[in-house]
Design a protein that fits this description.
Layout (H helix, E strand, L loop, with lengths): L19 H4 L3 H13 L4 H22 L7 E4 L2 E4 L3 E2 L8 E2 L6
Antiparallel strand pairs: 1-2, 3-4
Helix pairs in contact: 2-3
Amino acid sequence: MKSGNKDRMLDWFKYAHLPDTLREASPPFGELAEMICDSIEPGPERTVALRKLLEAKDAAVRAKLKPGGRDREISTSTGAMRLPKTRCAEPGCKRLVASLRCD
């Protein structure tokens, strides 16, 4: 990233360390972060804009990692772990699910 108006938050938009399948989701967010830093003066609102963009980038990377968010198991260093069953977060729903919503 080559921003003339460097912001320390730009470091969070780097993606070279990610595997190829996850890396492809990141470049547009990094490019937009650079554009924001180049066109908006530093200040609290620019920081908020970058923070929210970072949140969106992280969500996009997670979506590539677990499409649909439907994985019922997560990998750990000691193997796969089953997600615990919990009540659905939808109002009035009483189903037990392995995620927060039973869609």
